[in-house]
User: What shape does this take?
Amino acid sequence: MRMPLGRSARRACAAVAGALVVAACGPAAIAGAAERVVAVPQSQYATTNVAIDQGEPLTFLNLDAINHDVTARGKNAAGAPLFSSPLIGFGQEVPVTGADTLSPGSYAFVCSIHSNMDGTLTVGGGGSGGGDDGEGPAIEVQVLDSKLSDVRKAGILRVAVTVDEASSMAVSASAKIDGEKAKLGKASHDFDQTGSHVMEIKLSKSGKSALRGEDKVKVRISAKAEDTAGNKSSAKDKATLR
Assistant: This one.
């Protein structure tokens, strides 16, 4: 004989059934959830393109039986994801921490334990502006080359730059030779992803000439970045090439 369910049990069953219906319907059933990333069976994001306004919160809802999360591919200056959620199970919904501090732009995200699950978060400029604090991007620059002969042969000086938001980056290299400052070359690039990037500074004709015949040169790198809101910042590095 089947015993009747109590009120709390009926409510629990109804909640699970409702979530299963949404999961079974797939992306079409939840396409209107613009401020939410949703995972559905079998290990996929139903919302692979999500849009929020700057300063607006983002949440993650898991309607799959397997644990998932939302993790930004881009890193900040400390090496941590720009935004992320904890791993959660079926039926749970949590905030995506850091999404409300992003500047306008596009940001790739992924499930940290299922690399096939990925998507893009687009941050617009129509929000409260909480992501624009008036400060320029946090940037770092580091000389990658150490052998002067390699730089002369390739005609390129490689540097690593790290940015914590989408930025336009410009770098230049110089050296002091025989007491005189010599401009070696410059490079620029627009980065729509945060994290570390390698930039190649092509030596100018005068830069190649300045390095010719030298056995040790101390180079200086100057990096300048501008974010999508027009905020600027700079960083420097120096290294000795032998």
In short: Confidence is low (pLDDT under 50) at residues 1-34, 127-131.
